[in-house]
UniProtKB/TrEMBL annotation:
Residues 21-58 form the MYND-type domain. Transmembrane segments: none annotated. This is MYND-type domain-containing protein. It comes from Jaapia argillacea MUCL 33604. Coiled coil: none annotated. InterPro entries: Znf_MYND. One of its GO terms (molecular function) is zinc ion binding. It comes from the Eukaryota. It holds the Pfam family zf-MYND. Keywords: Metal-binding, Zinc, Zinc-finger.
Length: 428
């Protein structure tokens, strides 16, 4: 049997909206073909008349974003931990921690838990208990050191991670098509609705935090390390054909927002950064219709710019050049993707050389994790339909004044519409 050559890589766009019947152009009683959710009909009659022509392209794998988002969150977390970052690491991972002085009142009147940094010390991303002790000798316990390290490692600019994730989705999901391929095409859905667009929102997020005294970290010269800005935030949006909007935000953990998703049921081969308490869980905030009724109390997202990735014609061309090279320092992603990255980052903000190198590596890492591990292997079929959201409290959060009474956890969990199980690390 001769193998059919693989068709050239190109993007096959999904439906934008349910406009008219594919056969008669009628506009009433429109229904999606249940086989593929890619064709629209006004009646059973029109669908039957079209079947002979439609049948060869009807087969579509539809991956529910509710089931897939923990993988995207996990890949972003993986990127933060398993690369050799230097410049983009939090300054506290490059200095010894010399003092924790309890709470300090800052110039603007806010009260913060104060951490003071001393001599340069590269704790970085390679740790052991001994090194953690050397880094942070005044901590009360090993788990407190580890929890702080976890939180600091998750300080990173959200923009490169959300762009890399969207590029990987575009390349691994929307370049599949039934024509000329032995495999069904794949598409994203939200429950029964096809996803019609996704991309990046830039704007602000107003957080409710459980922490009464967020961290203030002071450099040896007396200046404070800027906190991650909730005013200049980036997150991923998805829109369905029914114009329903979903939000995926994997970058709130460093702002003391303790919402995570359990990775139980996701057997992923990449090395997972453990979370405190040994629970396999990754930071993420996913807003869909089940959480919409809590919107008054949840983080409030105010997008200033909405930038589509799926519908960007330049990116559609550029992603065809992403092949599957071995990972390494010299791997390049197409220039158009780097230009897009700068556009998302916004006016005057350009990535440093290290930032660029990391971004390129992240695009490829997330792409491989999605494409090989998740889509092509059909692993997505085994993922939980409704992954479990959790509230994660670390000993560190305890220390900075997170209200961890059972009542407070329960209240917070119900705001987030998640399982109230609290994960808490403890010294063994
Ligand atoms: Zn019709
Ligand atoms: Zn169909």
């Amino acid at each position: 049997m001769s193998q059919r050559p693989r068709p050239p890589i190109q993007v096959y766009l999904p439906l934008t909206s349910l406009d008219e019947c594919r056969v008669c152009n009628g506009k009433d009683n429109l229904r999606l073909c249940s086989g593929c959710a890619e064709s629209v009909y006004c009646s059973r009659e029109c669908q039957t008349n079209d079947w002979k022509e439609h049948k060869p392209t009807c087969k579509t794998h539809r991956i529910d974003i509710v089931s897939l988002y923990p993988v995207l969150a996990s890949l972003q977390d993986h990127c933060r931990f398993h690369v050799d970052r230097k410049e983009t690491l939090h300054p506290a991972l490059k200095h010894k921690i010399v003092r924790e002085d309890g709470n300090a009142t800052l110039a603007d009147g806010t009260i913060r838990h104060l951490i003071t940094l001393g001599a340069p010390f590269a704790i970085g991303h390679i740790i052991s208990n001994e090194r953690l002790q050397e880094w942070h000798p005044t901590a009360r316990s090993d788990s407190e050191r580890l929890d702080l390290w976890h939180m600091l490692m998750r300080h990173s600019d959200p923009a490169p991670l959300v762009v890399a994730t969207c590029i990987a989705l575009l390349r691994s999901i929307y370049t599949t098509n039934t024509t000329g391929s032995a495999h069904p095409r794949t598409r994203l859905r939200y429950r029964s609705s096809p996803i019609s667009d996704f991309g990046i929102c830039a704007g602000s997020v107003e957080l409710i935090s459980m922490a009464s005294f967020p961290l203030a970290i002071q450099l040896p010269n007396g200046n404070f390390v800027p906190r991650p800005s909730s005013k200049n935030h980036h997150w991923i949006y998805f829109t369905t054909v029914h114009k329903e909007e979903l939000i995926l935000d994997c970058n709130l953990f460093c702002m003391e927002y303790p919402h995570v998703v359990s990775m139980k049921g996701y057997d992923l081969p990449w090395k997972h950064p453990t979370t405190p308490g040994d629970e396999k869980a990754v930071p993420v905030h996913f807003v869909d219709r089940s959480r919409k009724r809590y919107l008054n109390t949840l983080p409030v997202y105010k997008p200033r710019r909405t930038i589509s990735v799926l519908r960007d014609t330049t990116l559609q061309l550029a992603i065809s050049q992403i092949i599957q090279p071995p990972l390494g320092p010299n791997v390049l992603v197409p220039q158009a993707i780097l230009v897009f990255m700068d556009k998302v980052a916004g006016k005057g903000r350009r990535l440093t050389q290290e930032g660029r190198d990391l971004f390129q590596e992240w695009v490829l890492r997330i792409f491989r994790g999605l494409d090989e591990v998740t889509i092509q292997s059909n692993a997505w079929k085994r993922f939980p339909e409704d992954p479990n959201g959790l509230v994660l409290l670390t000993t560190y959060q305890d220390m900075i004044g997170v209200d961890s009474s059972p009542e407070a956890i329960e209240a917070f969990a119900s705001l987030c519409a998640v399982n109230s199980l609290m994960i808490k690390s403890s010294d063994s």
